[in-house]
Amino acid sequence: MKIGVLALQGDFIEHVHALRRIGMDSSEVRLPQQLDEIDGLIIPGGESTTIGKLAIDFELMEPLRAFGQDKAIWGTCAGAIFLSKDARREQPLLELMDITVERNAFGRQVDSFEVDLDVPALETVAPSWSPYHAIFIRAPLIESVQKDTQTLASLPDGRIVAARQGHWLATVFHPELTSDDRFHLYFAEMIRTN
Ligand code: GLN
Fold it and tell me: Which of 8, 77, 154, 162 has the smallest count of CB within 10 Å of its CB?
């Protein structure tokens, strides 16, 4: 099993390192034909408008949409925005996952913060419960999810920060910037059971 990381812009190398830590084979994806060699794809954090523009330039939009029809995709932060159906503004989106996101939802002043989250779904890959320490950097929010989309984590005030719809996963924080690899393990399991 091999997991690709979209390597157009953003912190893709940190995802590659996390995948290495969990013993997973990975590859950087920049060309459409590289999608044929992978079983699942991570879209990293960065700048969603830039990732979208580069995906158009690299002729990746349709190949990514086709890949996502039956293969697992995980978007982190900007990647979650790019994976969504709606960011309530004009920008290139894959429009796969049935979520509406609000970009830069935490404003400019408090644009980065860390918080412990309760993520029960992670118990499937790491049985002993402990909070998940999440890093938010100019993060979006998942404003709303559709009926077949499961909320995996919320802030204490109820705002959604991680969700799953079948073989699509969205986290608005950055698991690749911590040494807690449970989300990478969780995504690997999603691919295995897809
Ligand atoms: N603010 C970025 C965007 O809107 C996302 C930030 C991130 O990926 N850390 O695309």
Answer: 154
